[in-house]
Design goal:
This protein starts with 5 loop residues before the first helix and ends in a 9-residue tail after the last helix. It has 9 helices and 5 strands. Strands 1-2-3 form a 3-stranded antiparallel β-sheet, with no helix packed on it. 41% of the residues are buried. Helix 4 runs antiparallel to helix 5 and helix 6 runs antiparallel to helix 7. By secondary structure, the chain is mainly α.
Length: 247
Amino acid sequence: METSSGERLDRALIELGWLEMLDEMPDVAVPLVFRLLGETGAHAPVVNDVVLRAAGRDGGGTVPLRYTGDSWVVWARSGEPSSVLGDDLPIHPVGEGDSTPLGPGRQAVGWWLVGTSRAMLSLARQHALDRTQFGRPVASFQAVRHRLAETLVAIEGAEATLVAAATEPDDLGFALAKAAAGQAALTAARHCQQVLGGIGFTAEHGLQRHIKRALVLDGLLGSSRDLTREAGITLRTKGFAPRLIQL
């Protein structure tokens, strides 16, 4: 994944048995592949396979995916990147989608967001260790350490939520897990940008690419804000909060 991306990586994953893994051991395949996509900064249209398989359809194709604001997009398996959502991603708007199951797709994108968040944290941490100010490493300053610590707590919490949602899969659990992962990624983007300062805005530094990726992925299959609102409506309708995990 560190040397390939897009259509080339998609073909490589299929040759390695990605679709078979998705059928036989999805609880291993989905966290592994999508977390690595985030950590390496690569991309591949494999979220299509997760949604298609959840609907009982063959993988290897595409399916309209819900996006924030009641819009729909297609993550193409080939073709030129679109300038609509991230200029390096082949995501294209479409008129409407269908009622395919969203839960497994949200879980997959959640793991992608966790991987992206860890990549941003790693870049900020290394910068804090390398950068010196007033004769001391930036990492020694309390304000910087607090930002990095808050980012790590958000990421660990999101990962725990994703693991918990997978133990007893349901739409509400997956929605909350995706919301937690999206919020963690936004927290990581904000804090890591502050730690890196001006260099984090430059095209030469890798942080800006991860931030743009996090913003796009947060909106895919429902943003953290949208999903939190939907969960609240669901709980109000039911009149009680179900147990999401056995403690």
